[in-house]
Amino acid sequence: MEFIAALQSRVTPWSDGLEPSDEELDAIEVEMPVISAEVELLDVQIALLDRPVSELDERRIRRARRRLLAAHRALAAKTATASHPEVGA
Question: Could you say which DSSP state residue 16 is in?
Answer without folding.
Answer: G
